[in-house]
Amino acid sequence: MNDRRDSAAPESVARLVAKLQGLPGIGRRSAERIAFWVLKASEDECAALAASINEVKRSVRHCATCWNLADHDPCAICADRTRDASTILVVEQPRDLLSLENAGMYRGVYHVLMGRLDPLDGVGPDSLTLRDLERRVREPATHPSRTAVREVILGLNPDMEGDTTALWIERQLAATGVRVTRLARGLPSGSQIEFANAAVLADALAGRRASAEPASGSARP
Length: 221
Description:
This protein has a five-stranded mixed beta sheet with strand order 4-3-5-6-7. It has eight helices and seven strands, in the order H-H-H-E-E-H-E-H-E-H-E-H-E-H-E. The longest helix has 17 residues, at 43-59. It folds into two domains: 4-59, Helicase, Ruva Protein, domain 3, CATH 1.10.8.420; 69-210, 3-Layer(aba) Sandwich (Dna Topoisomerase Vi A Subunit, Chain: A, domain 2), CATH 3.40.1360.10. By secondary structure, it is α/β, with parallel strands linked by helices.
């Protein structure tokens, strides 16, 4: 690093600040605060933090059914027989699933796409888990409890890429006879599910509508 402020810090501290600054949402000042916390913390606290990071990298994987993050396969949601496996809520990322679970309004199962269609960035259907979703709908034997799917809820972010992905899913599932709906009010165009509060997500779930009906203010793909 070429910042003159680094000359006053030991090289190991400067390297730690640089690594921390590379994390999402961590700027220079936040990186320095975390680095000084590490310096003040006990060796046991630092070792526990390092062990937790290593454990996450070693043990966390994607559920083979829904692609949620899990330390067992299937994940806890897919393995829960009290969930309504006839309804699949489709989300873009595991963090969206976590936000919806925290809202406490949904008791079905999920499917995580691991992104959304973005042709300009070279992200097509084969880059996501769209084919796995289609297989779950068409082949109940691949679905939790071998339950036939009655409804697919598209919980995608209300922006152009999310709408493009939703349209692709709707067209692929059109011949299956499965009801396809989208999250409704409470999610303005251009917003992100992971940043919505529980009340907004609860409204969006309760007010979901047929996917063919365009979202108010959303861009058509």
